[in-house]
Write a structure and sequence with these properties.
2 helices; 83 residues; 19% strand; 3-stranded antiparallel sheet; flat; PH-domain like; alpha+beta
Length: 83
Amino acid sequence: EPIYNIGMQNVKAGLALDYRKKKHVFRVHADGFQFLLQAQTSMEMIGWIDSLQASTNIALPIEERKLPKFTPLSRRYRQMFYH
């Protein structure tokens, strides 16, 4: 049974660049708390951060959701990779 439930609204996840004791550590801010979590690999860490950010995007009420930020590929790159 969980000790504490954390709502995904307003959760922030990112790299813990200032933490150097262990590898693949990322930081999660939620409900006024800060958590340092460690993944096995850098790819797993990035996957966790992406998943946490994605769940935060869909946890907000529709009126408060921001459009995801992305950079579209130029026509040249699309032609190189998709043809």
